[in-house]
């Protein structure tokens, strides 16, 4: 069993920053190494990959649209994954979802697909005003 709970969303002006957090818990989450990811869903659009981080934290991947502005990190001792979002723009407005999948130590050489992730949080709303 895996529970993922996102926090940190809110309303911010363009150019501002937010820090999202995802807290993982549950027997399965504690028993296995988990790669983590962030995805977002904007009105009228399909779910979009944002960023991913491997279990060890040594491999990360970013969507081109957020590269250089967002930073993903994790603290395995606290079972948390964070997404620091800087220079936010109105097009970043979306519901942001944390996701987890079993890690096989492969790292990322391309953006992982949503279907690769078995476990999802409920999402947190990020709204960027112009």
Account of the 3D structure:
By secondary structure, the protein is mostly beta strands. It contains 1 helix and 11 strands. It has one helix at 27-31; strands at 3-7, 10-13, 18-25, 34-41, 48-53, 60-62, 70-75, 80-85, 94-102, 119-120, 124-129. The strands form 2 sheets. Strands 2, 4, 5, 6, 9, 10 and 11 form a 7-stranded mixed beta sheet that branches. A 4-stranded antiparallel beta sheet has the order 1-3-8-7. The model has no long low-confidence stretch (mean pLDDT 96).
Average of the residue pLDDT scores:
96
Q: What is the rounded Rg?
A: 14 Å
Low-confidence stretches: none
Measured by DSSP, the beta-strand proportion falls in over 45%
Give the proportion of residues in helices.
under 10%
Overall 3D form: globular
Please count the helical segments.
1
- Strand count, sense and closure of the main sheet? 7 strands, mixed
Through-space gap between termini: 40 Å
Work out the number of β strands.
Answer: 11
**Alpha-beta content class:** mainly beta
User: In sequence order, what are the helices and strands, one letter per element?
Assistant: EEEHEEEEEEEE
Quick rundown:
With 130 residues, this protein is mainly β. Helices cover 4% and strands 48% of the residues.
